[in-house]
Amino acid sequence: MMNGGPVAWSAVLGKTICCSTAEAEVMAAVSAAKEALHLKLLLGELGVEQKDLVIQEDNQACIAQAKGGLRHIRKAKHYSVALRFLQRLVLNGDIGFEYCDTNSQLADLFTKPLDEQKFNHFAKQIIYDSGADPNHSMYAYLTKA
Questions:
Q1: What is the C-alpha to C-alpha distance for residues 39 and 139, in angstroms, rounded to an integer?
Q2: 94 CB-near residues (< 8 Å, 6+ apart)
Q3: Cα separation values, 88 from 30, 69, 108, Å
Q4: Which tens digit of pLDDT belongs to each residue from 12-28?
Q5: CB-CB contact of 128 with 30 (8 Å)
Q6: Closest CA to 67 of 11, 120, 107, 29
Q7: In principle, which of 13, 48, 71, 136 could form an S-S bond with 43, CB 3.0–4.6 Å?
Q8: Residue 73, Cα to own-chain centre: how many angstroms?
């Protein structure tokens, strides 16, 4: 998110088979971290100063593994390289993690099928409407049946 709106998102089929939810979340966090760092460097080149990068994660195991320092995690043998990369970014202060409850995970708007109530809730959070006529807002356009 930047200035109240989403900047980048993706939903892709993983290139590897993950043996656990934590592994899948670590792989997604690595992808998000790489893209966020790239965008931060790009904005820096344009003279736009950015705050700390924070990844909102809804998986406690992923957060614990990433914040655990550069230590070996026995169960992470299939994704240890990705995890070490993430751990190094956290130790260096390049990125941070923040727990986000699953019901508040804004990224679900772009990556999961949602019921109407959840869709409307998330859509209102990301769509900029500066007080324009509600019938002409982007929200009204997206939520038309």
A1: 27
A2: 33, 37, 53
A3: 11, 8, 27
A4: 887 888 888 889 999 99
A5: no
A6: 29
A7: 48
A8: 23
